[in-house]
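Write out the bound-state structure for heme C.
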Amino acid sequence: MRRHLSSAALVLLAAGCNSPAADGDQSPAASAAPAVPAALATFERYDAAAVPGGPGPGKRYALGTAASTSVIARWNTDVGAQGTELPPGKGSVGEGSALYTSLCASCHGVGGVGGIAPNPPLVGRDSSAEGFRFARDPQLTKTIGNYWPYATTLFDYIKRAMPLATPGSLTDSQVYALTAYLLAANQVIADTTTLDADALRAVRMPYRDRFVRDDRTGGPGVR
Ligand code: HEC
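---
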């Protein structure tokens, strides 16, 4: 893009030099009007079909390349409820506490109590919310401890989405440590716990049974 702009600017300069000095009606820019199509012609000559991985017949744009298996593998890191995809690595509550202070507390508050909107609280088992009274009182604060059905998906979420400005920057062991810290702060596991894949799969969330699988199969009965 920069190259095209500067060559267009050069043509504009040259056209300005050629303009008769006494031409009061035409500014140099107006007399240089053909320079823009000349610059665009470079773009139009671009042979999309010649680009490796470029578009096939009938496609207009030569943007991007085909994703390789290794690129797809790098992005394909989601961890489901059963936790079968959890990677190797491990982290303790203590390690997670230190990471939380340096990487997360600025938004989620010291100890996870929440920050200025939209940064949600992550910790806080408000006693009035115990018993899963959310339908009756939508104002009750939902946290990891009182609302998440699975611990495995906490790992998944942190790994893919946090910290907000640099998602994907944490190692798997750091994510285990942060998951351990947040689960301990929500009184789901003990402060002395170290989590790895097996230990995380074994964690049962307090309100797990309040969630039911949506087994509707479609059709007119589903609204
Ligand atoms: C720049 C601010 C910021 C930082 C730093 C940050 N977060 Fe977040 N976090 C957010 C926001 C905003 C949301 C809500 C996102 C949404 O709902 O789409 C969120 C959501 C979350 C949630 C989901 C909460 C829920 O119950 O839905 C978790 C878990 C979480 N963050 C963990 C972390 C951890 C762990 C770190 C540190 C490694 C971190 N965050 C750092 C802003 C931040």
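---
The radius of gyration is 29 Å.
The pocket of heme C is lined by residues 103-104, 106-108, 118-120, 122, 144, 154, 157-158, 162-165, 178 (CB under 6 Å).
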